[in-house]
Amino acid sequence: xxxxxxxxxxxxxxxxxxxxxxxxxxxxxxxxxxxxxxxxxxxxxxxxxxxxxxxxxxxxxxxxxxxxxxxxxxxxxxxxxxxxxxxxxxxxxxxxxxxxxxxxxxxxxxxxxxxxxxxxxxxxxxxxxxxxxxxxxxxxxxxxxxxxxxxxxxxxxxxxxxxxxxxxxxxxxxxxxxxxxxxxxxxxxxxxxxxxxx
Length: 198
Description:
Blueprint: H1 2-8, H2 13-16, E1 20-26, H3 30-36, E2 45-47, H4 49-56, E3 62-68, E4 71-77, H5 85-92, E5 96-102, E6 108-114, E7 117-122, E8 130-131, H6 139-144, E9 148-149, E10 152-153, H7 159-171, H8 177-181, E11 184-188
Helix pairs in contact: 1-7
């Protein structure tokens, strides 16, 4: 069963080499997410991933927002909004935020924040090293999804898809690649906060 959950997240591997950021906020709408990121929904257009690429090119990060049951989400290519702790804390006030960051150099960070407080945060390559108010919140689930085996990372498992499977197993979050690549509110943002300006 958990292999099937990991398989449903396999689409993220298409974006791993250039980096991506995924942010989920419980109970938020797509336009709420844009406003929280400092964007104006009036500037956003509904586009597919291909259309957004043709419209904006690849020089600046493009934020795409939408909703799934109970959660709003942001998918950002090339950028690293998921590493902006101030932003994530602000988004989490009165609710929950799950953030998954993957940069082009392979750095990954998974974070759960509830009402401004980091509950658990870890690098999927080193999930044994966790921080937060309840760092072991997903410890048992890490084993269940195959992220950790015999106290260390299972070398045969893709750590990013296994980590996102935690969000499915523990929080009911499931985002299909077809949804991310299909029509979503899309807007180009400043390169500030993107790894591309380093």
